[in-house]
Amino acid sequence: MENKTRRVFLRWMAIQMGAVFGGALLASCGRQESRSLQTTALPIAQPLQPTEVDPTGAPLQAEEATAEPTETPASHPHLAVARGGEPGTLVRQAVTALGGMQLFVNPGDEVIVKPNACVDYRTYEYAATTNPWVVGEIVRLCLEAGAGRVRVMDFPFGGDSESAYRRSGIQEQVLAAGGEMEPIRFLKFVETEIPNAIDLKRCQIYEDVLLADVVINVPIAKHHSLGRLTLGMKNLMGVIRDRPYMHGNLGQRLADLASRVRPALTIVDAVRILRANGPTGGRLSDVQKLDTVIASADIVAADSYAATLFGLQPTDLSYIVSGLNMGLGRADLETMKIEEIAVGA
Amino acid sequence: MAPNARKRRGVFSRPWTSLRKLIQALALLAFLVLFVLARGETPGSTTNLFLRLNPLLALVNLFATKALVAGAAVALITIALTFLTGRSWCGWLCPLGTILDWIPLHRWTKGRWTPGEGWRGVKYALLLLTLFAALLGGLTLLIFDPLTILTRGLAVGVWPALDKLVTAAETALYRLPALRTPILAVDTLLRPLILPPVPVTTRASALFAGVLIAVVLLNLFAERFWCRYLCSMGALLGLMSKVALLRRRIEPGCVGCTICTDACPMGTINAADDYASDPGECTMCLECMDDCPLGGTTFAPVLSVDPMRSYDPGRRQVLVTLGAALGGMALIRTVDPEIEHPFALHPPGADAEEFYSQCVRCGQCMRACPTAALQPALTEAGIEGFWTPVLISRLGYCDYGCNACGQSCPVEAIAPLPLVRKQEQVIGRAEIDQDRCLPWIEEQECIVCEEVCPLPEKAIELELAEARLPTGETIILQRPLVIHDLCIGCGMCEYKCPAVGEAAIRVSRCSGEGGLRGGQGRRRGG
Q1: For residue A188, which residues of chain B lie inside 8 Å, CB to CB?
Q2: How far does the CA of residue B157 sit from the closest CA of chain A (Å)?
């Protein structure tokens, strides 16, 4: 009597489990084929001529990054700087000067926006985390350009991602703009090879960053004792799992990482900059309000310009030097075409 | 076979038993829901409700601190319930009791060995010992309280194991592309609410889960073995039940069929005493009333003191346990715990001197701690601080934006500090071991401790130093130093230190600990 019921129960369990896993298998089969780890962010090395964009809106072909950085078309500046206005306006003006978000985001694209939300105990006033309105406006611009889905993510080193999203104020503005927050799932850190790397040959990178059509990097410009400043390339630390390892040879390892992640666009939030006690901050006296946003498809150029806000030369930062050596971008601020926009004036 | 056949007839044939089982299930569910919610946004004063309902915890804390914690007044509900209806807490509400009811292991062994009646006295002896030790300021025996066993067993035993199990299964299955979407959906459901969103480490989980499992395994010897013979909280409620209003009564219709003696989970219905039972043992489960075919058992109001039984505590037990408590406390207190245990860091807001006499060892703070920095002391705090929470900075750090432990403490042994106060609270002080620190010994760049220091004015400064590499090359690098007056000992630096094994920066106890940063600190012997 008792054996029989146990057998019936086990059989019933087996049928149920089979149905669940079978269903899941069928449901997810079709979905995975459309993506692969090969499709990465738009390489900046690719010429960003509007004529190359398929007018029907088909996504650009991802190409292997070439060693030589190529010029952006003559009609658009290599880098745009907007000053003196509301954070959202600054972002919109800077991106418009670069040629508009539709140059970077195609209709239907899966977009990952990577702000800096490094800890879960600071609000945006302390300039430890990216300005929420800057992030919100980027989400809005992506959606206006026809992006299919815009997700915002960072892997903080203090606290968990969801509390950092809330405390920093980023979540509120992103949701209001129609974007989504991506809670960090440790399952999604995948061991990834970095083919062009000099030091960091392998690394656990967040899967969604590799799968996204477009990655937009939104660092906040702030002080950091080892890197001197944390800017665009340093901000990419938030897409990998093992941070302390990076500190051994920070400049080169950051450049290696940037060669794999390849953000399509780097927008440096210098609305408030943190001049000391970074990267975590906590004293308003260390914060300087600059009301500035820097945008460029070239992560090295964006970082180089941001360095000057602190009175530093681009080559003072080890990761800019490594980035230049790897051909990831330019730092010749005197010769590159820069458009400066005075929003408030 | 006969009683079983009658039991199967349906829910309504045993209305009181059915109602009790429903309430037991709901109470256990409520306990588990509150346990899960204890890590997160829900106020700690809500999620620690079951612990505050426990009169034993409130009483020993009162005895040891000689001060009343306002929040502990909730225990009056249980006390009132007990004076009205006896040990109904045990039969109807206790989450551990319900688990023991649901795992009837005694049916396997069929009572091959059952403890004699004298064993019931063990729980009274334990209760007296606990109370006398508490009067002398020792709360270590609270590790035997049923709710602390359950909370601690779940928080630092079962739950971490569950997390490891789920994570391992998810990681394995996530490799199959077809399963990614369902696995992610499951993961999103579980984290951050039920399981921790970031990987956490817990020490000695097997020990704490093992205590809980051992309590369950005692069911092999007798139904509700724990409740009958060992439970000190049950003993306290049992003593009150001697004068409870509602008590079991045998009606004249009883014919001595022994159905009720077999049905009683506490085994307290004594055929030799005309089927009377001890209200100090009866959990008011009402099985005997439901099962009696002749209506021979009822429960009715009585105003009297029930007679003492042979196993009830008498003058001798009181004197023996008092002596044992005095001797035991004297033996434990031969050494100043601060000197012997320099790394036993208390949670932020704990009184450095009095903490061991305030903490009831429930483990609720350990569930609330999002980084699993708080873990039961094994050897760090000696016998006096056994299983009190210690902050193990190498395993988890005190999050600068979190004050959950103080909010969740049922007896305010960890003060419920507002966040801005907690951020100034000195837990200990970091010290750099220059023989282990990378920039000091290996001439390697590393500033991790300074980078992660959450204080507005960092408590770690970097000094520039010239270092000679093995190649003969000279470089300038930054070496960390702790600024003692600024450090609060949150342990973020120790947690993140990339040194292999023991960190090159360690937090230890210090003067001023337990007070505010920069405030007048406590001095040893002062």
Answers
A1: 184
A2: 22
Does B446 sit within 8 Å of A248, measured CB to CB? yes
Inter-chain residue contact B401 with A224, CB threshold 8 Å: no
Q: Which amino acid is at A164?
A: A
- The alpha carbon of residue B451 is apart from the nearest alpha carbon of chain A, in Å, by 6
Q: Are strands A287-296 and A265-274 parallel, antiparallel or unpaired?
A: antiparallel
Q: For A105-138, write each residue's pLDDT tens digit.
A: 999 999 999 999 999 999 999 999 999 999 999 9
B145: closest CA of chain A, how far (Å) = 33
Residue B394's nearest CA partner among B488, B491, B489, B459 is B491
Q: Are B456 and B412 in contact (CB under 8 A)?
A: no
First to last CA, chain A: 88
- B263-293 residues labelled b (16+ CB within 10 A) or e (exposed): bbbbbbbeeeeebbbbbbbbbbbbbbbbbbe
B424-477 confidence digits (pLDDT tens): 999 999 999 999 999 998 778 899 999 999 999 999 999 999 888 888 888 888
What pLDDT digit, counting tens, does each position of B405-417 carry? 999 999 999 999 9
pLDDT at A52: 38
Of A162, A226, A277, the CB nearest to B457: A277
> DSSP per residue over A177-236, as a string?
HT-EE----GGGEEEEE-TT-SS--EEEEEHHHHH-SEEEEE-EEEEETTTEEE-HHHHG
Whether residue B192 is preceded by a cis peptide bond, meaning omega within 30 degrees of 0, is: yes
Residues from chain B that touch A251, judged by Cβ atoms under 8 A, are none
**8 Å CB contact between B101 and B33:** no
Q: Are the Cβ atoms of B197 and A282 closer than 8 angstroms?
A: no
Gap between the Cα atoms of A42 and A136, Å rounded: 21
Q: Is B68 on the interface with A (CB under 8 A)?
A: no
Using the Cβ of B181 and the Cβ atoms of chain A, whether some distance falls under 8 Å is answered with yes
User: Is this prediction's ipTM beyond 0.95?
Assistant: no
What residues in A contact B372, CB-CB < 8 Å? none
Inter-chain contact A28–B181, Cβ cutoff 8 Å?
yes
Helix (H) or strand (E) holding B180: helix B180-190
- For A124, which DSSP code? G
Nearest-angstrom CA–CA distance, A195 and A309: 33
Instruction: Give residue-wise pLDDT tens across range B208-218.
Output: 999 999 999 99
Contacts of B454 in chain A (CB under 8 A): 119, 121, 158, 280, 282
User: Residue B128 is encoded by which pair of tokens?
Assistant: 């007296």
Predicted confidence band of residue A26 (pLDDT cuts 50, 70, 90): low
B434-450 burial string, b = 16+ CB within 10 Å, else e?
eebbbbbeebbbbbbbb
Rounded to whole angstroms, the Cα distance separating B479 from B444 reads 9
The pTM score is 0.88
